[in-house]
């Protein structure tokens, strides 16, 4: 069993180094994590993780199950408190004690379960918890107009905004969750498995939406087991293993097989090649 002393693979940190090699002023990370540790009982979920997220980039965060990806992003979003380590936003150290603290600093997260209300319509979900009122009543007309603007800005097509969310396709539901998060003017948007269980056409639509969000200057963190999706939207990839960050790659300096080796380790890559599904288990297309 590998431990936290597992060596960092060659290439880890090369993305940051490339940002400073030209002699131009160093970019200040939108988010900088240093020495982040988190333990649940006897389980060390995170073992001193350092990670930077730069303005306007999409960072893919990958790893096998229990690698620490979700725990790390829940610390960034204020859901969990770190046991040790620091979080800095644009060079300023911050402490979050609850998700509202992170949202106040313009960090939003789209969870894998989307957190939508199935029996509420599209407009209601977009404005959930921040409804527009006129006197003591909901201003439905204004909310409808604002919802159309919100969706049009991201090129999201929902034919009937009065439709209950439970009637929408998986891709449409994902788009609503992303649009709601984007409407809070985030500086950082974290997405947990946004393309899981979607049809091919819906995957394409969600990936295009992520690129449009990124184009507005939002820094995006993408957790996914569909490794091929990373090459459509990400600028860099960070690989987690048993609570540690073991590698980073610029997207143009890696490929699918390289990522699989980083995720599972060299000793397991031959076994994966021999399985009936091959590398589809962790994201390769069949």
How would you concisely characterize the structure shown here?
The chain is an alpha/beta fold. The chain contains ten helices and twelve strands. The protein is globular and about 55 Å long.
Overall description:
A six-stranded mixed beta sheet has the order 6-9-10-3-11-12, with helices on both faces. A four-stranded antiparallel beta sheet has the order 2-1-4-5, covered by helices on one side. The longest helix has 16 residues, at 200-215. It has helices at residues 14-20, 69-76, 99-104, 122-126, 140-153, 170-182, 200-215, 227-233, 256-264, 266-274, and strands at residues 31-40, 43-53, 58-62, 84-89, 92-94, 107-110, 133-134, 137-138, 188-192, 219-223, 236-241, 244-250. The model is unreliable at 1-24 and 275-281 (pLDDT under 50). It folds into two domains: 14-106 and 186-282, P-loop containing nucleotide triphosphate hydrolases (Rossmann fold, 3-Layer(aba) Sandwich); 118-184, no CATH class. Helix content is 33%, strand content 23%. Helix 6 runs parallel beside helix 7 and helix 9 (256-264) packs across helix 10. A hairpin with a 2-residue loop joins strand 11 and strand 12.
Layout of strands and helices, then pairs:
Elements: H1 14-20, E1 31-40, E2 43-53, E3 58-62, H2 69-76, E4 84-89, E5 92-94, H3 99-104, E6 107-110, H4 122-126, E7 133-134, E8 137-138, H5 140-153, H6 170-182, E9 188-192, H7 200-215, E10 219-223, H8 227-233, E11 236-241, E12 244-250, H9 256-264, H10 266-274
Parallel strand pairs: 3-10, 3-11, 6-9, 9-10
Antiparallel strand pairs: 1-2, 1-4, 4-5, 7-8, 11-12
Helix pairs in contact: 6-7, 9-10
């Amino acid at each position: 069993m590998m431990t936290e002393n597992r060596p960092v693979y060659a290439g880890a940190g090369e993305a940051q180094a490339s940002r400073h090699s030209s002699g131009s002023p160093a970019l200040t990370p939108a988010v900088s994590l240093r020495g982040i540790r988190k333990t649940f009982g006897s389980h060390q979920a995170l073992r001193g993780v350092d990670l930077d997220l730069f303005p306007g980039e999409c960072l893919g965060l990958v790893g096998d199950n229990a690698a620490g990806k979700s725990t790390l992003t829940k610390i960034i979003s204020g859901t969990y408190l770190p046991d040790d380590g620091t979080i800095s936003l644009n060079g300023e150290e911050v402490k979050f004690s609850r998700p509202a603290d992170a949202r106040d600093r313009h960090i939003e997260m789209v969870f894998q379960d989307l957190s939508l209300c199935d029996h509420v319509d599209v407009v209601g979900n977009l404005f959930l918890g921040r409804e527009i009122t006129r006197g003591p009543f909901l201003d439905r007309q204004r909310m409808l107009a604002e919802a159309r603007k919100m969706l049009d800005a991201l090129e999201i097509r929902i034919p009937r905004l009065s439709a209950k969310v439970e009637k929408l396709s998986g891709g449409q539901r994902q788009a609503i969750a992303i649009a709601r998060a984007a409407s809070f003017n985030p500086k950082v948007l974290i997405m947990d498995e946004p393309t899981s269980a979607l049809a091919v056409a819906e995957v394409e639509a969600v990936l295009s939406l992520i690129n449009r969000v990124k184009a507005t200057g939002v820094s995006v963190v993408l957790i996914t087991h569909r490794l091929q999706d990373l090459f459509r939207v990400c600028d860099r990839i960070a690989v987690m293993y048993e609570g540690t960050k073991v590698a980073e790659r610029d997207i143009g300096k890696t490929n699918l097989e390289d990522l699989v080796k980083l995720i599972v380790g060299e000793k397991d890559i031959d076994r994966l090649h021999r399985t009936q599904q091959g590398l589809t288990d962790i994201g390769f297309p069949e």
